[in-house]
Design goal:
Length: about 650
């Protein structure tokens, strides 16, 4: 068997065969049957983003980087909305992976083991599966391995041009996979520390400059939109929060963690004090075409009202910009226009009542605390204060007298719930308390438990059930409780929102999710450390479940996930064996462990799955090939002599 395997690996055509296998599998998964349920459009938003770019629209998110969206947009611009075209193109691009891996590994482990690694990649790469749907993995992997090939050549031959090209490609990789952003810095620092010569330093500078050049357009674009330095994306905030939810008994399913209920804020606020506030509203179709309402606003710092005109208009969508406000400011605003009526000129406002019933936006970065300093809102913090007053006689203000009876009692709990979740028809909230906690129970059996030891955060609550979950994230302005109804057959505006544009909303949510994550970590740091350690290994293993909140469900899912678990666990164990062999031999191959280890070390604390390691899978297959070569003694003198004698014959 060993001689037969050696004979195959000694053929120059074997690497090409590996690429053809990759192509064949990719075409099969694309056009015949795919072991995933997503179809060509994929599970991410790249399809819609790419179509918008192809139409000439700007890139409409900071939540994902631009790389893969522009890749898809190129094909949509050339051939129209034919989803299979960019998918087929990435299947073809993915066929370069075995050849690139051979070129990377051959100087380190020899032709035979390098050929074996290329063959393993061609047959078993999970990128072949993901190449059949719109996902960034396959293109990113080819780009990453290409950067290593060019960079390694530049280091070996001390060629500045290759190092610069490798650096530029390394800077493009994070535009497909943001978690790769720090790896070039690690490469540069390690190269300088190992070499410690002027030549090493000069090459590291060239490499870093090329990486920076590739990253700069994205950084500049993000800064112009958000006034924030953002080299990757805003998605890290929610990923970290999700990771802090997957701890303890919820290690495999964040959705089952009751603390996920705090996703929504109980108050209308923005944490972006450094940027103007963008107000958007949409005109009713029945409104006059030339009608453009003015926006009137004032703050609790300056009660003098200011009137501003629209800053932009796109069809029925009208945009206004309120100047940036400092943290700790309440902004009140409404929209107003005059409209001709049979009896003269009427003034219409949104919301109804205008200055007597304005919209409210709080500018504050205390994400989890009560920011409503002037009691402008009815919200969960009012419910908490009422409950604590009833349970432990803590002082309250006049604002807690929700039903305006002249006192604060259990009836105010009922009144607050009725106003915050009117669709539930709540008329009675059951209340009980003891020395340690107070509990509210709603009609559906859900509950909110308020601990007596309270840090004045929304997240100090223990919440279970649907109505209770809705109650903790609802708010209403107090003026809206008595405001007049919409007037006339054609109101002024609808869909009024503050900072709902993506470059405001996504940055604010990143900050909120970071605050939620830090709050979770602070409650049980050891559990978070244990969960992160578990995910460091779990990252390399595919593991399915019947929980639709944790794992995508589809026909044949159990079989597909079971096969994935066996394959991924097997190759991971063989990879570990190959890594041990390389380290014991003090092989230069050990340097490839740096990017492999980098991935789990830098993302083990966020929500992760095996897909996040796919970019490193080709490198891991080199170590798998080392282990198999050692087990079959393919690199032994006997095997080499057999190969030589065959060539002589």
């Amino acid at each position: 068997m060993r001689s037969a395997v050696a004979r195959v690996l000694d053929r120059r055509s074997t690497v090409a065969v590996a690429s053809l296998i990759t192509l064949g599998l990719g075409l099969f998964f694309t056009f015949v049957w795919a072991p995933h349920p997503w179809g060509w459009q994929g599970i991410d938003q790249y399809h819609e983003l790419a179509k918008a770019l192809a139409r000439g629209e700007p890139f409409g998110t900071t939540d994902v980087p631009w790389g893969y969206a522009y890749y898809g947009a190129l094909f949509y611009w050339l051939v129209g909305d034919r989803v299979w075209v960019p998918v087929l193109a990435q299947v073809i691009i993915n066929t370069a992976a075995p050849v690139l891996l051979y070129r990377l590994a051959q100087p380190l482990v020899g032709a035979r083991t390098a050929t074996l690694s290329a063959l393993i990649l061609g047959i078993f790469s999970f990128n072949t599966v993901y190449a059949s749907t719109q996902a960034s993995d396959a293109v990113c992997t080819v780009l990453f391995v290409s950067s290593l090939v060019v960079l390694a050549k530049g280091v070996r031959e001390r060629r500045m041009l290759d190092i610069a090209i490798g650096g530029f490609l390394s800077g493009l990789v994070p535009q497909f996979r943001p978690n790769m952003i720090l790896l070039p810095a690690i490469f540069a620092a390690g190269y300088v520390l190992i070499g410690r010569t002027r030549g090493h330093l000069a090459r590291a500078v060239v490499f870093t400059a090329a990486v920076t050049l590739a990253l700069t357009p994205w950084i500049v674009r993000n800064y112009r939109l958000t006034n924030t330095f953002m080299p990757t994306s805003t998605h890290g905030g929610i990923q970290l929060w999700y990771g802090t939810l997957q701890v303890g008994p919820y290690l495999e399913s964040r959705a089952q963690n009751p603390r996920s209920i705090f996703d929504s804020s109980p108050l209308p606020y923005t944490s972006l004090a450094e940027s103007p506030i963008v107000i958007r509203a949409r005109k009713y179709e029945c409104a006059p075409a030339d009608e453009v309402p003015a926006l009137v606003y004032w703050t609790d710092r300056s009660r003098q009202s200011q009137r501003i005109a629209a800053s932009a208009r796109d069809g029925s969508l009208i945009t206004y910009a309120i100047p940036a406000q400092s943290t700790g400011t309440a902004v009140y605003y409404y929209l107003e226009a005059g409209r001709t009526a049979p009896g003269g000129m009427n003034t219409l406002t949104t919301p109804p009542g205008g200055a007597a019933n304005p919209f409210l936006l709080l500018v504050d970065d205390r994400h989890l605390e009560d920011m409503d300093r002037h009691q402008d809102l009815v919200d969960i913090f009012d419910v908490i204060r009422i409950a604590r007053h009833i349970a432990w006689q803590e002082p309250v203000g006049a604002g807690e007298d929700i039903d305006r009876s002249g006192g604060v009692d259990a009836a105010d709990l009922n009144a607050a719930a009725a106003r915050l979740i009117p669709e539930a028809g709540v008329t009675q909230v059951d209340f009980a308390s003891d020395a340690a906690a107070a509990t509210l129970r709603l009609a559906d059996g859900s509950r909110i438990t308020i601990p007596r030891q309270w840090r004045r955060r929304q997240t100090d609550l223990d919440v279970a059930g649907n109505l209770a979950g809705a109650l903790v994230s609802r708010w209403r302005t107090r003026t809206s409780l008595t405001a007049p109804p919409l007037a006339g057959p054609c109101p002024l505006l609808e869909e009024v929102g503050a900072n709902t544009v993506f470059y405001r909303a996504e940055l604010h949510l990143m900050r909120r999710y970071m605050a939620l994550a830090m709050d979770n970590i602070g409650r049980d740091p050891l559990a978070f450390v244990a969960a992160s350690a578990y995910r460091m290994v779990r990252l390399f293993i595919i593991r399915g479940s019947d929980d639709r909140h944790a794992t995508q469900q589809f026909s044949g899912a159990r079989l597909a996930y079971a096969a994935g678990t066996v394959l991924s666990a097997t190759y991971f164990l063989v990879f570990v064996a190959g890594a041990v062999i390389a380290l014991r031999r003090r092989s230069a191959l050990a340097f490839l462990l740096v990017p492999i280890v980098y991935v789990p070390l830098t993302i083990c604390f966020v929500l992760t799955n095996m897909r996040y390691t796919i970019t490193m899978q080709p490198l891991m297959f080199v170590f798998v090939a080392v282990a198999l070569s050692a087990a079959l003694r393919l690199d032994s003198p006997e095997a080499s002599n057999d190969a030589a004698s065959r060539r002589e014959r």
